[in-house]
Amino acid sequence: MQDTDPANPISQAERLAAWVRLEQTPGVGAVSAQRLLERFGTPQSVFSASHLALREIVSDSVARALCGPMPDACAACLDRIGDWLADPAHHLLTPDDPAFPPLLRQLAMPPLLLYAAGRMELLSAPAVAVVGSRNATTQGAANARAFAGALSTAGLTIVSGLALGIDAAAHDGGLRGPGSTVAVTGTGADRIYPRRNEALARRIAEEGCIVSEYPLGSGPLAANFPRRNRLISGLCCAVLVVEAAADSGSLITARLALEQGRDVFAIPGSIHAPLSKGCHSLIRDGATLVDCVDDILVPLRIAPLATLPVQADSAALCTGAQAALLDALGYEPVGADALGALTGRDAGALAAALLALELAGHLERLPGGLFQRVKR
Predict the structure, then answer these.
(1) Whole-structure pTM value
(2) Among candidates 121, 85, 96, which has minimal Cα distance to 216?
(3) Does domain 314-373 have CATH number 1.10.10.10?
(4) Engineering a disulfide at 112: which of 23, 73, 77, 355 sits with its beta carbon 3.0 to 4.6 angstroms away?
(5) At the topology level of CATH, where does 118-297 sit?
(6) Mean pLDDT in runs of 10 for the chain (376 residues)?
(7) Is 24 buried (19+), middle (13-18) or exposed (0-12) by CB count in 10 A?
(8) Where is the Smf/DprA SLOG domain (predicted)?
(9) Residues 156, 187: contact at Cβ < 8 Å?
């Protein structure tokens, strides 16, 4: 960053300090900050306003804080930000910055500060959010990785939340194409959560971008994650929900996307699978049913990927007996008793065959003693 903006006599450091101070002033939330900016224009003007003028918008105690000197805690925060920005791959964006993502400016309450680590230009690139359950099935994760990879191949950036399950698979798929991926976190941009995704997060910081509206050092507070979902949908022209239970947080992202005027797509599943309930609910409410990537690309007016090679079904890699068992299993979750009745195999032989297929990655074991075939 340059020290000064030629069009503005104050330094860049002073401008950022004013935004940080506004965001950190006790009692100033998203709504009051928006009202202050609408009235006074810039954070610097807010801090130059009279107590009487500020009292028209905020409480007396908040007005006094805005009129007073910068708190020591805010000064310490600015020092930490300065150290973090010493890395050329780190950026701090404000709504008046030309590099601030244009789609986020359209939000009712855009973030006051946006910390970005990595390829900042991806925040303004055409993007699709791919979200879903943290407790994804093997098939769900494979679907997320495949769809994200194809969308990235088509030049779309994949946006997700760096959670376990569908999010992690989506990021991995996005990194396989030129569109790359953006991770919107519910912690400070200098923290990795969950720790199991540490290696993935480091890849994203190098090849994609990690972004957060939360101050550096912020931990994984439960309230942060629903709030960050508006940024996941807000950065994108569309949202794809891969797997979601009826009460999944991914449905929050999808509903926010609808409120923001984005397209919502959902992959259907078995009527017996709990992780399909959320997707089915979205489809009933008007989301577009998706069973191939062109179902997303065509509505977005992007050239279809019909020329992509199709992978062989996993049954082609099995022995004849294993393939027959997979055919009997189908793609619905089935219990061992029902499968035994269907195939005529005794319990011992069936358990051994199912274990062999599970170890080979051709099926997965679901809660409740159910088995489901995995199409690879």
Answers:
(1) 0.82
(2) 85
(3) yes
(4) 23
(5) Rossmann fold (3.40.50)
(6) 48 90 92 94 96 96 94 92 96 94 92 97 98 93 93 96 97 96 97 96 98 96 93 97 93 94 94 92 95 92 63 52 80 83 81 79 82 78
(7) middle
(8) 92-298
(9) no
